[in-house]
Amino acid sequence: MLVIVVENVPPRLRGRLAIWLLEVRAGVYVGNVSKRVREMIWRTLDKGIDDGNAVMSWSTNTESGFDFMTLGANRRIPVEMDGIKLVSFLPENGIQDVPS
Q1: Residue 65 lies in a domain
Q2: pLDDT > 70 fraction of the chain, expressed in percent and rounded
Q3: Rounded to an integer, what distance in angstroms lies between the CA atom of residue 26 and that of residue 22?
Q4: How far apart are alpha carbons 50 and 14 in whole angstroms?
Q5: Tally of domains within the chain
Q6: Which helix (H) or strand (E) holds 20?
Q7: 16 pLDDT exceeds 80?
Q8: Where residue 6 sits, what CATH number does that domain have?
Q9: Is residue 6 part of a domain?
Q10: Angle, to 10 degrees, between the axis of helix 11-20 and the axis of helix 35-48?
Q11: Whole-model pTM over 0.90
Q12: 3-state secondary structure string, 56-92?
């Protein structure tokens, strides 16, 4: 299972995502794709995100049962602790573009 949530991205990128995934709510895409397709979708997001932001989460064989990556400026940033990926919040004035 793959879930992508986007905010403030160009309409052309939302249209591209809708080719591979189902948009169940505005900016929320779900689907069941292979690793190769997931990586291709991520490259497409990276190229077309402009000033927006995105998070992609997928099922995998880890303690939590999933993994995720983020793109763009957002207060929530991934932090790995003891092999488990968690989410940390930046102060409101500390929003920055943090790659996963």
Answers
A1: yes
A2: 92
A3: 11
A4: 12
A5: 1
A6: helix 11-20
A7: yes
A8: 3.30.70.240
A9: yes
A10: 170
A11: no
A12: EEEECCCCCCEEEEEECEECEEEEEECCEEEEEECCH
